[in-house]
Design a protein that fits this description.
heterodimer, A: 787 residues, alpha+beta, Aldehyde Oxidoreductase, domain 3, Aldehyde Oxidoreductase, domain 4, 7-stranded mixed β-sheet, 5-stranded mixed β-sheet, 19 helices, 23% strand, B: 155 residues, Ubiquitin-like (UB roll), DNA polymerase, domain 1, 2 domains, 5 helices, binds FE2/S2 (inorganic) cluster
């Protein structure tokens, strides 16, 4: 197959529709007779509702219905669940207060859903919402996570606003290691709160068919099957067989579209309440800021102990993590199993102890955002290592090298539960140092200084755990779902192939990559393979896309289904060629009888399977196979990013002078797409480190950064071009040898950039390194130098 | 209600609209041209960029009535006779898009840039794109695609 198999830089087939304006995003869909929903949101952070008077709104022009939490309660609507139960230090499950789609007793953050207005037009719905009279008793807002435990209680069943106090690792062993240390580095770190900001705002259409009593939900979801499961089993109490969720083209997710939200739930429920008219809701950007699940938001104290030779002896980490006002779908797993388990990084640190306290505050719920826990872990490890190197006068690259897990130590059991199957860290480090010309840095620094500028260099040797798995293990750790993936590979009689995958593409290019895999595997033309995703009505089952799992888990399911196709085809080929099945060989789309020149093409077999006039006995007609793949382990992509910055001490502006990334993603199917994923990840990581920050007013809990006027989004001129390379140690336990690449950049980048900036400044500052903060730090340094 | 008339992608259109209707709403809701997107409510993201009499504008920042009598080109009108415009082709070839949501606005902005500056530097491209936010690509491949298109269009 020319240039369309595994390893080829194939331009994406989905691009044509996006480039010509023919993409079909949820808001582009309009259903016959649809009505428009608008949500009245709480204007205050914390209040007890006394009454919600909807009478005037109900009689406003164009209004079809107004609903409140009371209506949902009367109808038996349940709570939005959190799907991962974390067991605390004392063996108790985390506190899981109810999270109703429309509030019933209290509003708990600015933007919380108080009422839903449905009208003939959006304008009418908004106008009517203005007429709703709210009577509430305002309560003090809990905003600062370090003070949350001593503040007024947000949920009756969560004393001290504590969701859980969780630990991992052997605290006594760590204390012992620290007692023997030659040097201990201590750091206080803030992992700033971010708003994911996929460019397509969330949207939903709920539609109930009074004839069939079936629901159809169009939603901007990263995982339509999971959304269906949550809607049916937890919130609306419906049979899954009566609900179809369609996630059409989705304009980016980065985690924020994994979760089941109030709005799609309410639209689905409301459509039946108003007799079956479709109910459409599209967030405006302001609503997205208020009500999308946010990311990160940790405060951490951490310590790393070294022996006299520079070997890591132990690590202690104490983190407080913000859950926001309610638990979003997977919130509890992020600062625990996706965070503390990664604290070994690429190193042989023998003992690690982490204590994580998760608290409720009167802010929007916090959940997985690109990297989810792993950027926070990498930030802790890689900032500690860098500062330790500075404090002990060691070269940061060499300190890392000394402590790397060596290739012959794999599989490597870390002290924080994970077992890395494979890795080879030095080649990535060497390549990155060479690309950035590490040796020439001194010269470049001198040149910058001659111009009155500060220059710094920073490394980040990250690791991540992707393709979250296996189901039995995550189940034992509290996950409420299985984390397999499914695929159906269906030959059509004429030789084209439809592949139904439970993974969901919202920018990742599955329609191209997956087709490359199938074309190569079955030896058929790439153009004959069609990838179908994002519709529970067309795809048997699925777990969706997050955690860089699509290729490692979803791709593996596709390979397994292809294997079943080949197995069955061999039986048919053997019959047609009058040979024994054991003698049939398959290569490049041809079935041959070993040692003869007899052969049959894949397409012929497919045709025979559907027109089985001459057919083996006992074999079913058709060529259509489904496989489920449950991985044996996580995959462990790793790599080294190096950032070089130049800072103008007069303005505080940081310019990224250079960026190199060397990543080991295992085997790569489409390098063009993989590089794009790395670029995008770096940009989000740089955004976090340099400019992005979510600020709530400390007193009132009002969101102060609620638009693109106040929340700094990275723009084209914030970046240089990136230089991106890969090394390969193939994953040992999935059939493609792939690891995942979607989150690496966002995981590696913040530590690399902050290491570079603090190297230039010579003092510690927290993210984001805004010009004001950098300027103050630079000025205080200059002053000190002058004194 | 008032009647607005304009030429959109070469076709004369005339519709009754509420006076407060934005150009982007007119295109998406009245004409069904959903290629022009809405990514924000503060005129910052550029997902809505179209050409008005040959110049890029943010269609969320203009009333439909302000486009009375104008020639409007949207992303749907850029490809000619089924052939991608060189900018569209370059975005595809260089993977200048991922989720595709910012893409129509990016492409329309970039086409306008090259009208002003046929041979821009990377820096000039990045500065021109300040009004277009992309959350997916990190801009690297967008800059590359625009450079490639510029080269093709210079011939
Ligand atoms: S929609 Fe964001 S600038 Fe127009
Ligand atoms: S491609 Fe997704 S926002 Fe640009």
């Amino acid at each position: 197959m020319p240039d369309s198999g595994v390893g080829d830089r194939l331009a994406r087939r989905e691009d044509k529709r996006f480039l010509t304006g023919k993409g079909r995003y949820t808001d582009d869909i309009n259903r016959h007779g649809q009505a428009y929903a608008y949500f009245l949101r709480s204007p205050v952070a914390h209040a007890r509702l006394k009454s919600v008077d909807t009478a005037a709104a109900e009689s406003a022009p164009g209004v079809i219905a107004v609903f409140t939490g009371k209506d949902m309660e009367a109808d038996g609507v349940g709570s939005l669940p959190c799907g991962w139960v974390v067991t605390d230090r004392h063996g108790n499950p985390h506190k899981a207060p109810p999270h109703f789609p429309l509030v019933r007793d209290k509003a708990r953050y600015v933007g919380d859903h108080v009422a839903m207005v449905i009208a003939e037009s959006l304008g009418q719905a908004k106008d009517a919402a203005d007429l709703i009279e709210l009577d509430f008793e305002e309560l003090p807002a809990v905003v600062d996570i370090m003070k949350a435990r001593g503040s007024g209680q947000i949920h009756d069943d969560a004393p001290e606003n504590l969701c859980y106090d969780w630990e991992l690792g052997d605290s006594a062993a760590v204390d012992e290691a620290f007692a023997k240390a030659a040097h201990v580095t201590k750091l206080d770190l803030v992992n700033n709160r971010l708003v994911p900001n996929a460019m397509e705002p969330r949207a939903a259409i709920g539609e109930w068919d009074p004839g069939t009593e079936e629901y159809t939900v169009y939603s901007t979801s990263q995982n339509p099957h999971l959304l269906r499961l949550i809607l049916c089993a937890f919130v609306l109490n419906l049979p899954e067989s009566k609900v179809r969720v369609i996630a059409p083209d989705v304009g980016g997710g980065f985690g924020s579209k994994i979760f089941a939200y109030a709005e799609e739930t309410a639209c689905t429920w409301a459509s039946k309440k108003i007799g079956g008219r479709p109910v459409k809701w599209t967030a405006d950007r302001g609503e997205a800021f208020l009500s999308d699940a946010h990311g990160r938001d940790h405060v951490t104290h951490c310590e790393l102990a070294l022996d006299a030779d520079g070997r890591f002896l132990g690590m202690k980490v104490d983190t407080t993590a913000n859950m926001g006002a309610y638990l979003s779908s997977f919130a509890t797993s992020v600062p625990t199993y996706l965070y503390a388990t990664l604290l070994a990084g690429q190193y042989t640190t023998p003992v690690i102890y982490a204590n994580v306290k998760a608290v409720f505050t009167n802010t929007a719920p916090v959940d997985a955002y690109r990297g989810a826990g792993r950027p926070e872990a990498t930030y802790v490890v890689e900032r500690l290592v860098e500062v330790e190197a500075r404090e002990t006068g060691k070269d940061p690259a060499e300190l890392r090298r000394l402590n790397f897990i060596k290739p012959d130590q794999f599989p490597y059991q870390t002290p924080v539960a994970l077992q890395y199957d494979i890795g080879d860290y030095e080649p990535s480090l060497d390549k990155a140092l060479e690309m950035i010309d590490y040796k020439g840095f001194g010269q470049r620094k001198a040149e910058s200084e001659a111009k009155g500028k500060l220059r710094g260099i920073g490394l980040s040797a990250y690791i991540e755990a992707c393709g979250i798995a296996p189901s039995a293990v995550v189940g034992s750790l509290g996950a409420g779902v299985g984390l397999w993936e499914s695929a159906t590979v269906r030959f059509n009689a004429t030789g084209t192939v439809s592949v139904m995958t439970g993974s969901h593409s919202h920018g990742q290019g599955h329609e191209t990559t997956f087709a490359q895999v199938v074309a190569e595997k079955l030896g058929i033309p790439y153009d004959n393979v069609e990838i179908v995703h994002g519709d529970t009505g067309r795809i048997p089952m699925g777990m969706g896309t997050y955690g860089s799992r699509s290729l490692a888990v979803g791709g593996s399911a596709i390979v397994k289904a292809c294997d079943k196709i080949i197995e069955k085809s061999k039986k048919i080929a053997a019959h047609l060629m009058e040979a024994s099945e054991a003698d049939i060989e398959f290569k490049d789309g041809q079935f041959t009888v070993a040692g003869t020149d007899k052969s049959k093409a894949m397409a012929e077999i497919a045709f025979t399977a559907y027109v089985p006039h001459n057919y083996p006995e006992g074999v079913e007609p058709g060529l259509d196979e489904t496989a489920f793949y449950d991985p044996l382990n996580f995959t462990y992509p790793a790599g080294v990013h190096v950032a070089e910055v130049e800072i103008d001490p007069d303005t505080g502006i940081t310019t990224i002078a250079d960026w190199v990334a060397v990543d080991d993603f295992g085997n790569v199917i489409n390098p063009l797409i993989v590089e794009g994923q790395v670029h995008g990840g770096i940009a989000q990581g740089v955004g976090q480190a340099l400019i992005e920050n979510t600020v709530y007013d400390r007193e009132t809990g009002q969101l102060l950064t609620g638009s693109y006027m106040d929340y700094a989004m990275p723009r084209a001129d914030n970046f240089p071009s990136f230089r991106v390379e890969t090394t390969v140690s193939a994953c040992t336990h999935n059939p493609l040898g792939v690891k995942g690449c979607g989150e690496a950049g966002a995981i590696a980048a913040p530590a690399a950039l902050m290491n570079a900036i603090t190297d230039a400044l010579g003092v510690e500052i927290d993210m984001p390194a805004t010009p004001e903060k950098v300027w103050r730090a630079a000025q205080s340094r200059l002053q000190q130098a002058a004194e | 209600m008032l009647t607005v008339s304009m030429t959109v992608n070469g076709k004369q259109v005339s519709k009754e609209v509420e006076p407060r209707t934005l150009l982007v709403q007119f295109l998406r809701e009245q004409l069904g041209l959903t290629g022009t997107h809405v990514g924000c409510d503060t005129s910052q993201c550029g997902a809505c960029v179209v050409h008005l009499d040959g110049t890029s504008v943010k269609a969320c920042t203009l009333l439909a009535a302000q486009a009375e009598g104008a020639e409007v080109t949207t992303i749907e009108g850029l490809a000619q006779n089924g052939e991608l415009h060189p900018m569209q082709a370059a975005f595809k070839e260089h993977h200048g898009l991922q989720c595709g949501f910012c893409t129509p606005g990016m492409v329309m902005s970039a086409v306008d840039l090259l009208k002003h500056n046929a041979d821009p530097s990377d820096r000039e491209i990045r500065e021109w794109l300040q009004g277009n936010i992309c959350r997916c690509t990190g801009y690297h491949n967008i800059v590359k695609a625009i450079q490639a298109a510029a080269q093709t269009m210079r011939g």
